[in-house]
Design goal:
By secondary structure, the chain is mainly alpha-helical. The chain is 28% helix and 0% strand.
Length: 46
């Protein structure tokens, strides 16, 4: 399962999941992007 939450909430979710013997970890992060242009970048290794 993959969910997107703030870093503060992520720590709580990890602790809760471990109490049910379910491994959890933070695998990435999102950053704000400020630009006057709309941009989409899609990279595909296929």
């Amino acid at each position: 399962m993959e969910i997107y939450v703030s870093p503060e909430i992520a720590k709580d979710i990890i602790a809760i999941s471990k109490s049910f013997d379910v491994d959890a970890k933070i695998v990435d992060r999102l950053e704000d992007f400020n630009s006057d242009e709309n941009q989409n970048l899609i990279k595909n290794s296929l």
